[in-house]
Amino acid sequence: MFYGTPVMRFKKAKYNPRWEAIKKRLEEGSIASGKIAIVEADKMLNEALGKLGYAGKDTAEKVSTIKPGQLVGIDDVREIQHFFHQIVKDPTHEIGMDEIKKAVATYERVFRGIEMID
Questions:
Q1: Is 103 within a domain?
Q2: Widest CA span in the chain
Q3: For residue 8, is it within any domain?
Q4: pTM for this structure?
Q5: Across residues 90-96, what is the average pLDDT?
Q6: What's the CA gap between 63 and 91, in Å, rounded?
Q7: Measured between alpha carbons, how far is 76 from 111 in angstroms, rounded to an integer?
Q8: At what angle do helices 31-51 and 74-89 cross, to 10 degrees?
C-alpha cells in the first residue's frame, strides 16, 4: 500500500528467496539466528526504501523521512528499530524470541505492503 509514495515494482523472484532464507533462520529457534534474521530483514528494508527513493545512510534515516501512514506498517518499523540498533551495537544483548518474532513479522508486513514479497 502506497500513500503518497513513489510506486516501484519489485522483482519478487529476487526478494522472495531472500525473505524465505530470513524466515528459515527464525525457524531454527535460536536467539542467535533470530538476531541475524532481524539484521538481514533490516538490510532488505534499507534496500527497498532506497529503491523507493527515500534518502539516508541507513534504514533509520530513511524511515525518519517517511510520513506517518505513508507506507503500511512503517510506524511499527519505527518501534522495532531499537531492537536492530541494540543487536548491532552489542551482539550479546539479550532479546527474547517473542520480540524477535514480532520484529520479523513487522518487516514482513512492510514487505507485503510494498508488494516486495508474496
A1: yes
A2: 39
A3: no
A4: 0.89
A5: 91
A6: 23
A7: 13
A8: 130
Compute CA distances 103 → 37, 53, 81, whole Å: 9, 23, 8
Burial class of residue 90 in the structure, from the number of CB atoms within 10 Å of its CB (0-12 exposed, 13-18 middle, 19+ buried): exposed
Residue 82 lies in a domain: yes
Q: Domain count of the chain?
A: 1
Q: Nearest to residue 6, comparing CAs of 65, 61, 60?
A: 65
Quote the pLDDT of residue 58.
95
Range of the domain at 100: 30-113
Q: Domain for residue 15, yes or no?
A: no
CB 34 within 8 A of CB 100: yes
User: Among 10, 96, 87, which residue's Cα sits nearest to residue 45?
Assistant: 10
Q: From CA 57, how far away is CA 36, in angstroms rounded? A: 20
- How far is the CA of 4 from the CAs of 59, 67, 92, in angstroms? 19, 9, 39
Q: What is the pLDDT of residues 37-55, one digit of tens each?
A: 999 999 999 999 999 989 9
Q: State phi, psi for 72 to the nearest 5 degrees.
A: -60, 125
Task: Evaluate whether 85 touches 60 at the Cβ level (below 8 Å).
Answer: yes
